[in-house]
Every structure is written in C-alpha cells, then in structure tokens.
Amino acid sequence: MYEKKCFCDRIAIRECEKVGGTMSPAPMYAVVDIETTGTAMDGSNRIIQFSCVLVKDKKIANVFSTMVNPVMKIPEEVQQLTGITARDVRKAPLFDDLAATIYELLQGTVFVAHNINFDYRFLNRELERCGYPALEIAGVDTVQLSQILLPTLPSYRLAYLGRYLNIVHAHPHHADSDAMVTAQLLLFLLKQIENLPVHLLAQICRYKNALLFQTGECFANVLKRKQRLGEPVPDYLQNAAGILLRRNERSMQKRQTSVFPVSDKDKKKLFLHFLDWRKAQSEMMNQVYGFLKDDLLQRVIVEAPTGLGKTLGYMIPAAYAAQKRGSVVISTATTALQTQLVEQVIPLMKQILPFEFEAAVLKGSRNYLDLEKFARSLKQVQSAQTRLLQLRLLVWLTITKTGDLTELHLTKYQNPLFDEIRHHGPVSLDSNSPFFEFDFVQRQQLLVKSADLIITNHAYLVRHATELGELQKRDLIVDEAQHLGSIALKANRDVIDFDELKIICDNLLVKMESHVSFSLQEVQTQQFLTTAEKQELLRTVRLVDQRIPQLRAKLFERFVNAAPFTTVFYEETLRLSKFLGFVKENLGDIKQISKTRARLTQIFSKLEQRFAEYRNEGRLDKAAEIFLFELTEQGQSLLEALKSWERLSLTELEKLSDEMLVSISLPLNQAGAHLRLQFSIFRTKNFLEPVVYANFRHVLFVGASLRLPGSPRYMLDQLDLDYDTQLIHLDGVFDYGKQALALLVADAPDISRNVDEYTKYIGKTLTKILAHSAKRIMVLFNSLAMIQKVYEQLKKNGVNDKRVLLAQGITGSNEKIIKSFKLEPNAVLLGSGAFWEGIDLPKDKLELLVITRLPFQPPDTLLNRAKYSAIEHEGRNSFTELALPETMMRLKQGFGRLIRTPTDRGVLIVLDSRVVSRTYGPKLRSVFPAELPVKMITTAEIEEYLSNFWKK
C-alpha cells in the first residue's frame, strides 16, 4: 500500500477557495516534500517519493504520501541518502498516474516547502510533462522563515531544525518524514510570527517582496490583525529611532560574598543536579582559588587534560575570587571560544553559584553592529539576499543584549552588508546621533567597569593589556595558553601595502572628481564644503596618490629587482642597516606622507561630524547623503591602510629590538601583484612579560597541552616565562587503554624521496580503510596541495559514491566543512592547518583519525628562518630545541581531537614511517598518553587491527 493516507473527503477538509498566487488570511497550507533521482531540472530526473501534509487552523488536517516508480535506475548516491531502493518503488504507481490526484490536491492551497525553489519547480516540470498546466498557487519557504525568526541558529537544515525544536524525525531524507517535520516546523514558525511586535512586523512587511514566493504574506496577515488590536511595544523592548532593541537590563543587586567550597563535601553539595563529580576538577578549583588569593606567587601554569572540565575548573574559583579581590580577566584563544563561554558556561554558573555575578565580553569593535550604519543600510536599495539578511538582523536586535555579530553563527560574513554595518570603534561615533545612547560598543565598555569576569581573546589581550590590567588591579587567566605565543606574533604584525594604497587613492579621486555621477562639486553646491576645503581634500589625496608609486618603484629597484628570474614569490628579510639607509635616502617623501596622513585624519573627522549635523538638520538630499557616506567610508579605508606608516619613521626603526623582523614580499608571476612591507616580532621572548603580564596582579596559564616530555623549556620559552615557573599537572580522566588505539605504520614510503609515490600510497590506503570502515573519519595533512591530489584520487576510486567527501580549500570554507562533518554520519574530512587543533568532536562525531604526515613546520619560511637562526646564534640546536618540540606539540594536539569524553572510542593511524624509523621517533611517541596501546604495524595489517578494535 503506497498511499499512507488517502483524501476520502479532501474538499470538505479544504475550506479555502483557490486564490491563484495570493494568500487568504486563513489558508490551507500544503506542506510538500519530494525525493528525486537527481536535482538537475533538465528532464533527466524523476520523482521517487511524494508527500504532502495539509495544515489548517494551526493543526495538521491530513496526510498523503506515496512512493513513485521513476521507470529508471535510482543512482547509488540517492539510495545512500534516502534509503529508497529499486525494490521500494518497483510496484509503486507512475507519476503520470498520480499527476491528476496531486494537481487536484494542491489547488487552492498555499504550497509550503523547505527550500521551495526546488520542490515547487521540480513538481511543476513533472506536471507539465504529464500534460497539466503549471501550478500558480501561493508558496511559502520555511528556510527563509527559519532564518528570519531563528536568527542565531548555526544551521537551517531540516534535520538540525528538527533536533533543535525536539521534533521527531524518524527518517531524514524520506519525503513522508521530511514533510511531517516541515509541517510541525511551519506551525512553530507561524506561532513565532504571532509573537512579533507590531512595529517589527511592519518593518518586515516593508521588505517582504525580497522573500521567495509569498513568504512575506505570513507576516502581512498577522500585521493586519495586530494593527486592528493596537498592541503596544513589549516592556522588554525599546524603540531606538525606529529600530526595536532589547532593553539593557542590569542587575542592581548588592554584591554578595560567599565562602569558597574548599572541601569535596561542600562542592558536591553545590554541584548537585548540575555537574558530575570529578576529583581532578575539584583539585583544580582549589589550586586556582589558592593561587588567586596568594600575594606572593605571580605566575603559575596548570595543565588540565581534556575531559577534566578545565573551563569550570578555573571559572568557578575566578567568580569567587572576584567577589573579594576585584575583576578577573579571562582570555581564550578565539572569538568562537569566547562565545562558547558566554552561551554555555556562564548560564550554567549562574544556576550553580549561590551569588549574583556579572560577566562582560571584550573583543574588537568590528565584531559589533553599528546601529547608525545599519539604519542607513535599510534605506538603501539592496539585493534580495541582503534584504533577507537585514530582516534576520531586525529580529536578532530584539534578542541580543550585546550586538555581537558572531551570535548569528554564520559560517562566513562575506555579504557586503557586513563591511557596511560593522563598528569602527568609539572614535567613529557621533554624539548627536539618535543611536548614540544605544551603541553596543559603549554598552560593553560600561559593563566591563562593573563586571566580575571580563572575557576576552588573546589577540585583544595582547593589544589592550594595559587598559585591561588597570594598573595591576586585576588578575588574568589565560586559557588555551599554548596558543598565546603564536597569536601574539600575528597581533604584532604591521603591513604597508603600497598597491592597496594606490588603489584606494585612485578610487577616492575618481569618486571626488567624477563628471558622470555625483561628486564633490555637487556637495559644494549644497553648501556642504567651501571651494578651499574641496581643493585641500583633493590636493592631499593626490599627494599620497603620487608619492606612493614613486616609493614603491624605488623599493622594487633596491630590494626586489635582483631576485632570480625563476622566483615565483619573492619574500625576503631586510637587513636593518640596509633598510635604514633606504629610509634616510627617501626621508622627505616618507615624512610628507606622514604629515598628509595626519591632515587627512583631521579632514575626514571634520567631514564626518559635519555630515552628521547636516543629515540631522535635513540639509542634504538623498544623493548627497549616499555620496558623503561612501566618501567617508573610503576615507577611513585610506587612513586604515596608512595606519602602519609610522613604522617608517627613523625614531621607530632605531628602537627596533633584535626580536623584530622587517620583510618585503611580491608575487612575481601575476599581474596586479601587491608589494608589501611587513614589520613583525618573530618570537615572544622579552615581549609577553613586559607588554602583557606586567599589567596584571596574577597570571594563571591553563591548557591541556602545556608540557612536553623531554622538552621542559619549550612552552616556557613560547610563553616568555622563567624556567622556574610553577607547573601543576592534573591527572587525566580517560581510560585510554580501553577507549583508544594508536596504529603506527612502519612500511609507508618515505615522502622525502618521491612525493608522487607517497601521494598514491595515501590515496590507495585511505580507499581501503574507507571501504572497510563506516566510521566518521578525519584525515590530517600538512599542505593544501596534497589534499587536492588525494581528494582527486579518492574521487577517482569512487569513494564519493558512498561517503560524503569534505576537503579543505575545495568543498567550502573551514566553518562549512566542520558543520557538514558534524551533521553527516558517513563523512570523510581532509584537512590541514586549523583542523589539527581547537575542534571539539565528541562521541561518534569522530571515531577514526588518520595523520598522513608528521606536522613538521616548513623550515624555509621567513618566520621560521628567523626563529631557527636566533636559537643557533645562542649556541643551541634549532631542531631539538624548536622544530621537534613544535611537531611534538602539534602531534599531541592532533591526537587530542580523538577522545573528548569518557564514553568516546577511537583509533589513530599515522601513515608516516618516520614516527617509527627515525632516531627522534621515541620522542614523538612520548606525547601519547602512557596507557594508550601503541602498535607498530604494516599497511596490510590496518584492516585487521581496526576490525578487532571495533569488535571489542
């Protein structure tokens, strides 16, 4: 029986009339999902399952579902995805025989689908193929509704939405199950629309035509009803110059003091119903609290293995310490980890702790939305994609208390709108703006002054340590401390891009002097600026535009022209004495640009202030407003590009330490290549202590990988700490003897002898592993080039027919790849770089980890050459003191991806024989947990060991 429910009385159930592309106030929704032999709409594919759920009066009215015989082979990948095979459809009706029923069923309904562009169009093509006219009924897309109404979700795939809303999804990628989940999702979304305030509904309806089909009518119908009732703005919202914002509610409760629970008994009582008891975590809390109270100790390292619960292990004692000793600054490696602390850890702590506390987040201003710029963007002509994003932001603004754009959990922020609406810091604010008092950056800075816990990231910490430390009045906890050194190097890198400067100047001049569109002449006629002001602005920009190419040509002649003809990418460290000579020879031009930059800063500041005044007074027409907005934005871009120019002053250059690197780079094989000067430190020695740590009362370093067997000085050097700094190591909580296995392949070919042979070996070995293991697998590489070659080989071997192949640099952004890997149970991820660390994949999210090549860093980069040279100059061995410890640390972090909880099970396979054959092999193997079973095997034995492990 292929029709699970038939419509015995369809006409009686469907009370609405046919409305031909429009929506009635109380429609019958037909929620449709189809499965097909393929997605191409060229007539070569057919429907294999059709399902429809009718929704009326806020409940499910009826269901119709049937398999469909496509009279063609169902591709293997479709069978894998849907579970629908030839046997399932062999006796099912043809679509030709179902077309009349489906056509009649859908008349007068509102067609609803999750990604309506596919289901509606594909179904119409099939109906037309069978001789029926195309459907002309209204349509609603639940993807867009979800994006608008649930703006902070990381995914809008139906399976994820079902899990998020606790909707039972029995058979994902089965039309009957998908249609039922979509119907329940629709009911939820319609209820959410009912809860939106009238003002917000009106804003959404203003731009409803940007949405697919009649999706916007879902909001319009509710708006009409609510306008008749005259609902007020809810108390928790405020109207900020036409945009609804969440009120900034702050706790005014008097600060309480509670006694820290030192004993296990007290902690168990405190954690009851919230946390599982962990002896090592309790010990860590006591160690951290004791250190923060100690006035003698200033620096301590705590190594807390994965699974111990290190985050709460330092956050809870920090909250107790902050009650009596003032704010504690907590720095973690990335903004994503900051978000994790705020969204997951802080709410849990507020449930656990017997006192109120405030937490504030500090990150770069560009992470926040600028309300003034966003309001301006709403008035401009936008693409449908950008309008959808704006609607999402309007709803988000009624939810967010921070204005932090990372709350949107987008995999990428590449829409031009984000460049337009990002905050440029307090200096960019206009005190006369109607949004000034609501500004998110100012709100965060005010919150910091009274916060108990200040959560920031390493990059922000390095740049703002002085203000964060408040003259040693605050304590600092550095989480993920193993990353602080490398992030500090990046945070102290300044670049002068001569070609980018020229491009910005050219664009500015074209804009200001245009004879075919709005220009400075037109704003002058509106009395916005005088003739003298216009001429000075043009003169200063022209000066930069002329001098920059001249200096670029001289730099090229002096430092690049002698490069070998065969060089593809020129990059070289400049001897300071030689570079100083160049600067002295061209000091006149360099100083002239410095003075011009200072004058441009004054000019654009004055223009922005005047622009705000004229706009508020209504003295400019629309064209002038748009022109001046774009002009000031481009002006800020020029000033930003010139920000590092002071690095060329003689005073600055003569102060450069031995740890500073000056380099020049230029791709030689491409047109329009950019010549860049770069100034950076190449190691953190004598930098982190005076620049960062000295600003705080105590500094605690926390991480899962802060020591290496046989290399005790490595991490201390990276963190710029004394060799006698106290290190507390806490015992791990995992039973690696039962949970994991390491297989080190001794007969893998030597990559240093033949790269092509090694690549073929990797592709062939991975193909065999994947054929015999259905586990979710991550494969780690050292280069994107190798990933490309292996990816092509795996595709050639047919791996992508049965597995979802995800490859860094090929199948999407890193964020998109990680998201897909977590969602796809049969995924294979090929990654390098960032995939070695910082990704949390617990339970069955990762069960097999393959390392194709030991993670040695390339020795010939400028940074590594400088680091190795400095160590050799000190009479030490750069391989044993730096290159090998770096690889050991990376290998340790790579293995750390595998086991994340006490119930995880997983296997590590290393396909680089050097871990077995080289003299440094034992040192590399020493990074694995002592109780981990390590087997040195041949390639042919891999399958047997895997099979035996999974049978246990």
Automatic annotation (TrEMBL):
SMART domains xrefs: DEXDc, EXOIII, HELICc2
GO terms under biological process? DNA replication
The coiled-coil segments of this chain are 590-617
Q: Which Pfam families match?
A: DEAD (PF00270), Helicase_C_2 (PF13307), RNase_T (PF00929)
Motif stretch (DEAH box): 479-482
Q: Which reaction does it catalyse?
A: ATP + H2O = ADP + phosphate + H(+)
Query: What would you give as a GO molecular function for this chain, any one?
Result: 3'-5' exonuclease activity
**Family that this chain belongs to:** Belongs to the helicase family. DinG subfamily. Type 2 sub-subfamily.
Protein name, entry field = 3'-5' exonuclease DinG
UniProt source species: Liquorilactobacillus satsumensis DSM 16230 = JCM 12392
